[in-house]
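> call design_seq(struct)
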């Protein structure tokens, strides 16, 4: 079972500090301020420190001291992605460079005019994906299927200081009415995006090994995607050096109505990303939680 409560790390004051630094000092200067913010997280967030240390030390097999250093670097890298997201949304998109890996897959998906399902994870910086899709198809519409558990005050503040996002949100509801919204969006040749790596305790789950240890995954994305007769693509936007981002798109080649095979393919794709970008695993909770741990 997951111990994630549906709320990401960060405070309104922290976001305001970064926005001020970006606008007044620039992106690189904001990275300098981040050195101290990351140190604060590294020093005082004992619970998330323990969870991310477990990932580096037990799952990736890194030595003890290197794992400790990687915990700090993880917070620093996560902070960079937040700064980048705000900067890009605030009109500084031209300061970054972008690389497409699998652009033909996405172009074909849009040209078929059947809609499509994207499945991502809380790795990298998928929230800037719409800027990639804008270069492929300016009329492309992304619908993010999500719960409404984020800090609303932070969301409202970011919306007030950045350009309005073209991403629409489909909220998961107990009465399952979100299924109708998904079907309506697909009928309009729009894209449906899920994240498949955060399971809420009490909801239906699928269990499978990630990095050689059993974990629970939300069943919804894989049940829905495996039953819709549209292409399913795994998509990640990963941060690289020098304000550069790399988008990866990979087709999920699985049979219709086989959610377990789809989950297996998803896990394999996530693991391949983590091998390339180990610092960009941003699940700061006990992902491999077991009741007797």
């Amino acid at each position: 079972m997951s111990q994630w409560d549906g709320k990401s790390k960060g405070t309104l004051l922290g976001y305001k500090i970064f926005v001020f630094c970006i606008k007044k000092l620039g992106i690189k200067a904001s990275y300098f301020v981040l050195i101290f913010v990351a140190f604060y997280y590294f020093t005082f967030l004992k619970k998330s420190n323990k969870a991310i240390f477990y990932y580096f030390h037990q799952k990736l097999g890194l030595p003890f001291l290197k794992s400790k250093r990687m915990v700090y670097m993880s917070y620093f890298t996560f902070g960079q992605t937040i700064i980048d997201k705000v900067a890009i949304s605030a009109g500084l998109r031209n300061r970054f460079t972008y690389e497409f890996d699998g652009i033909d897959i996405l172009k074909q998906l849009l040209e078929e005019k059947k809609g499509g399902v994207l499945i991502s994870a809380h790795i990298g910086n998928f929230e800037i994906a719409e800027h990639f899709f804008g270069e492929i198809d300016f009329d492309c519409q992304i619908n993010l299927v999500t719960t409404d558990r984020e800090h609303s005050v932070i969301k409202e503040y970011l919306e007030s200081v950045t350009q309005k996002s073209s991403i629409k949100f489909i909220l998961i509801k107990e009465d399952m009415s979100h299924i109708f919204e998904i079907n309506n969006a697909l009928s309009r040749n729009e894209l449906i995006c899920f994240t498949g790596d955060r399971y809420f305790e009490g909801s239906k789950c699928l269990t499978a090994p990630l990095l050689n240890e059993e974990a629970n995954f939300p069943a919804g994305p894989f049940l829905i995607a495996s039953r819709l007769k549209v292409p399913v693509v795994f998509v990640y936007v990963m941060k690289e050096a020098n304000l550069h981002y790399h988008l990866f798109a990979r087709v999920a080649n699985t049979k219709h109505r086989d959610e377990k095979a789809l989950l297996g393919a998803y896990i394999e794709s996530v693991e391949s990303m983590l091998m390339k970008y180990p610092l960009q695993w941003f699940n700061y909770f006990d992902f491999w939680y077991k009741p007797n741990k």
